[in-house]
Amino acid sequence: MLDIQKLSFGRLVDALKAVAEPTRLRLVLLLARSDLTVSDLTAILGQSQPRISRHLKLLVESGVLTRYQEGAWAYFRLSEEASVSGLVHAVLNWADEADPVVERDSERLDAVRVERARRAADYFARNAGSWDTIRALHASDAEVEQALLAALGNKRIGTLLDVGTGTGRMLEVLAPRCERAVGIDASREMLAIARAKLDSAGIGNAVVRQGEAYHLPVERQAYDLVTIHQVLHYLEDPQAAVAEAARAVAPGGRLAIIDFAPHELEFLRAEHAHLRLGFSDDTLAGYLDDAGLELVSLDHLVSSGGETGELTVTICIARDPRLLVAGDGPNRTTLVS
C-alpha cells in the first residue's frame, strides 16, 4: 500500500471547504502551474484586489497555499506539506482543463508568463555583456554541467536546493533528475529571469524564492542535494555560506560547490564585484570539514582565457556522513553517524 500522509479530521474539513468555492478553486488551479502575486491573480481573474486577497487569506489559513515575501512583493504557491499537497492534487486531477472558465484563466496565465519573460529578457540583455566577459575566461557552461552530472552520477535526486540560483540554470540542468527543486536568490531581477526560464522549459517541479545565502529560508536537513554554483566568490563570508548550506543537507545527502580555483585576475574584483579570487582545494576542504561534511571528489576544468588570463573551474562534491536508519520506536527513524 502507498504510505499516504493523513490529515486530521478538522484540517481535512478546512482544506476541502477552502477549495470548494469557484474563485478559490480557480486560484488553486492557477497556482498549481506557477507562483503568482496578488496583482497577477487580479489581472487573470478580473476581480478586485481586496476580493482576491480575502480568498488567498482563507486558502493560506487552511494550509492549501503558502505565502512568501520577495522584497515588496508577496508570492503564493501550493503548500508543499505532503498531506495537504496530496489532497489538493487529487482534487485538481478531477478538473476539466477544457472547461471554458479554466481555459480562459489558462490563456490569461500564459499572457502573464509572456510579459514576465519579456521583462526578464530585457534585464538579461542589459547585463549579458558583463556575464559573457567572464564566460570567455573559463570552460564552457556545457563542459562544466557535463562534468557536474558525471560527478553526481546517475542516481535519482529526491530534493534539490540551489543556493544563489541566479538565472536558474542549475534548476534547469538538475530538475529532470529530481522529485522537487528549490532555488534561492537575493535578487528579484534574477528570480524573474529564473521563473521565466523555468516556464519556458516547461519545468513544473522547480520553484524559486528570495533569500540570503547566510540565512536560507528552508527546512533543515531536508535536501538530498544542495548546490552552490559560482556564488562563493561574491560573498564576504563564504565559509558561513557553506555552513548554512550544509545545515540544509539531509543525512546521507550531498553538497556540490562549483567555483573558481585561485587566480590573479584582479579586474574581476574591480569590475565584476568578485570579493574572492578563487578558492584552493584545501580551503574548500576546510570549509566542508568544519561544516561536518566529508569530501567525496574534486575535479578541475581548465580553459585558456587568451590575453586576459584563464580561470580553472573546481567541482567539489561532499556528503553528510550521517544516515537515517529505520526503527521500531515512536519516531520510526534514528539518526546515526
Shape: globular
What is the overall pLDDT average? 87
**Share of helix, binned:** 40-55%
**Radius of gyration from the alpha-carbon trace, in angstroms:** 22 Å
What is the CATH superfamily of the largest domain? Vaccinia Virus protein VP39
Q: Give the DSSP E fraction (strand runs of 2 or more residues).
A: 15-25%
Number of domains: 2
CATH topology of the largest domain: Rossmann fold
Number of helices: 12
Order of secondary-structure elements: HHEHHEEHHHEHEHEEHEHHEEEE
Second-tier CATH architecture of the largest domain:
3-Layer(aba) Sandwich
Determine the N-to-C terminus distance.
31 Å
Largest sheet properties: 7 strands, mixed
Describe the model.
By secondary structure, this protein is of the alpha/beta class. The chain has two domains: 9-95, Arc Repressor Mutant, subunit A (Orthogonal Bundle); 129-336, Vaccinia Virus protein VP39 (Rossmann fold, 3-Layer(aba) Sandwich), CATH 3.40.50.150. The chain is 44% helix and 24% strand. It is built from twelve helices and twelve strands. It has helices spanning 9-19, 22-31, 38-45, 49-61, 82-92, 100-135, 141-152, 169-174, 188-201, 238-248, 266-272, 281-290, and strands at residues 36-37, 65-70, 73-78, 157-163, 178-185, 206-210, 223-229, 249-260, 294-303, 311-319, 323-326, 333-336. The protein has a seven-stranded mixed sheet, sandwiched between helices. The chain has a three-stranded antiparallel sheet with strand order 1-3-2. A hairpin with a 2-residue loop joins strand 2 (65-70) and strand 3 (73-78). Helix 3 crosses helix 4 and helix 3 packs across helix 6 (100-135). The two termini are 31 Å apart. 33% of the residues are buried. The model has no long low-confidence stretch (mean pLDDT 87).
